[in-house]
Amino acid sequence: MANYDVIVIGAGPGGYVAAIRCAQLGLKTACVEGRETLGGTCLNVGCIPSKALLHSSHMLHEAEHNFAKMGLKGKSPSVDWKEMLGYKDSVIEQNTKGIEFLFKKNKIDWLQGWGSIPEAGKVKVGAEVHEAKNIIIASGSEPSSLPGVEIDEKVVVTSTGALELGKIPKKMVVIGAGVIGLELGSVYSRLGAEVTVVEFLDAVTPGMDAEVQKTVQRMLKKQGMKFVMGAAVQKVEATKTKAKVHYTLRKNDKEGMLEADTVLVATGRKPFTDGLGLAELGVEMTERGQIKTNAQWQTNIPGIYAIGDAIEGPMLAHKAEDEGMAAAAQIAGKHGHVNYNVIPGVIYTHPEVSSVGETEETLKEQGRAYKVGKFSFMGNGRAKAVFAGEGFVKLIADKETDRILGAHIIGPAAGDLIHEICVGMEFGASAEDIALTCHAHPTFSEAVREAALACGDGAIHA
Ligand code: FAD
Ligand code: NAI
């Protein structure tokens, strides 16, 4: 048994970042993790492995579709799936070992095993009970299942199984056109699978700007992905090698069925809090099974904090990280801060999609007057040079004050470009501030400036 200032439960992006910040702020810190490696969902079965496969499959796509156009001729590469998975695993290992290194560097004890909280101020791991003045719960999330669908992680898989399939399927059905469905669907589509996405709603990527939703769906269709929209999946019948997905179209109750070698269920994730003993402790939860916290990430039990996917808000690694740093600051007697209005969202398809702040739809709902500056990547020289002229930057600013309210980008490096807007929003910038900032030529970021110019006197290259 040991005494700590802080014990963090869970070593995902929320937990490991909280632990590092606590240690940096001079607090004696331990982090409990039940997995064999640190890094949580994100590093082991989420962000990092999916981006590795998105990268390798995108490289194949470039070789097959764009190399010859640039005068790079020769045989297209063939896919060695085992080696591709090996590359993905090596990327995971580099990252999870990196966190182990950071724990050692910051003198954080990794308490290996599954933790529970028998009472406030105590964390039990295996037979050991440790004392902690403060506890941060960062236990993350898990895939949510669908009634009538049994997951075997072989034929009917969640994202976890989809990151290590035995072989590339000939036919794949993806249930859910959210972030996971589009990212992993596009991986397998680029690797040669016939991918059909079945979505309950009438638009992909719920919550995103409507114009972006239509554009991303059109672009993915052009790349070969098929979509069945407005379809409620009723059940999935699976054998050891095949599955049938039964659905009903919402508009006319017409029934349909799709056959597949692999079915990816990507219908959302839910907080994971099993085994922590929260009910016995009397920790308040939301109706959706999230741990309830106040604005300082405190639960209703003094000394117990919660962050990341286990609490309310978008289930994103960077949101969890920011809360980790902020909760650590609060515990150390400093002021922790997260601006929930400026949390970017990125979908790593090709082209990438990114978004921050308000959409036209949310502003209409609020009855707030706004203006839109839009610029197509067709007018960006650098984008045209790399076959990335499709897509646009859309900047939304307050009609009266010109203050930036949101931005939506679909196009090359959209996930990086969005941060110029995020920094601007944090500083309360106007569209004119971006428009008056010199942007290097030729860069994709010139498209952001042109969208800002379009909010005022007009874009130059439109
Ligand atoms: P988690 O990362 O889930 O970590 C929680 C950890 O706590 C786990 O390792 C778990 O084993 C451990 N744990 C739980 N209970 C206990 C216990 N009782 N004792 C000990 N250990 C425990 N987000 C992005 O921002 N960008 C992306 O590109 C992205 N891609 C994704 C791709 C996929 C396929 C998936 C599934 C998710 C992706 N996400 C992405 C979401 C991201 O992974 C999560 O938002 C993020 O991991 C949440 O961090 P967390 O620390 O709250 O929880
Ligand atoms: P999601 O919430 O993004 O999308 C789920 C989709 O499934 C929705 O479009 C929903 O309408 C649809 N759906 C629900 N029930 C259905 C049914 N019965 N039939 C058909 N469609 C149905 O969830 P997803 O993609 O599983 O991702 C989970 C979380 O992981 C997200 O919250 C996301 O934030 C995070 N994530 C983030 C990534 C990123 O930042 N790039 C990448 C992958 C995941």
Secondary-structure blueprint of this entry?
Layout: E1 3-9, H1 13-24, E2 29-33, H2 40-45, H3 47-65, H4 81-105, E3 109-112, E4 115-119, E5 122-125, E6 128-137, E7 141-143, E8 156-157, H5 159-162, E9 171-175, H6 179-190, E10 194-198, H7 210-222, E11 226-228, E12 231-238, E13 243-249, E14 255-260, E15 262-265, E16 269-271, H8 278-281, E17 304-306, H9 317-331, E18 345-347, E19 352-357, H10 360-366, E20 370-376, H11 381-385, E21 392-398, E22 404-411, H12 414-426, H13 431-435, H14 446-454
Parallel strand pairs: 1-2, 1-6, 2-3, 6-17, 8-15, 9-10, 9-15, 10-11
Antiparallel strand pairs: 4-5, 5-6, 7-16, 12-13, 13-14, 18-19, 19-22, 20-21, 21-22
Helix pairs in contact: 1-9, 3-4, 3-6
Bound molecules: flavin-adenine dinucleotide and 1,4-dihydronicotinamide adenine dinucleotide.
EC number: 1.8.1.4
Cofactor: FAD
GO biological process, one term: 2-oxoglutarate metabolic process
Molecular structure report:
It is globular, with a radius of gyration of 23 Å. The mean pLDDT is 97. By secondary structure, it is an alpha/beta fold. The strands form five sheets. Strands 1, 2, 3, 4, 5, 6 and 17 form a seven-stranded mixed β-sheet that branches. It contains 14 helices and 22 strands. The chain has helices at 13-24, 40-45, 47-65, 81-105, 159-162, 179-190, 210-222, 278-281, 317-331, 360-366, 381-385, 414-426, 431-435, 446-454; strands at residues 3-9, 29-33, 109-112, 115-119, 122-125, 128-137, 141-143, 156-157, 171-175, 194-198, 226-228, 231-238, 243-249, 255-260, 262-265, 269-271, 304-306, 345-347, 352-357, 370-376, 392-398, 404-411. It folds into three domains: 3-143 and 270-331, FAD/NAD(P)-binding domain; 156-267, FAD/NAD(P)-binding domain (3-Layer(bba) Sandwich); 345-454, 2-Layer Sandwich (Enolase-like, domain 1), CATH 3.30.390.30. The longest helix has 25 residues, at 81-105. Bound molecules: flavin-adenine dinucleotide and 1,4-dihydronicotinamide adenine dinucleotide. The site of flavin-adenine dinucleotide has 37 residues, from helix 1, strand 2, helix 2, helix 3 and helix 9.
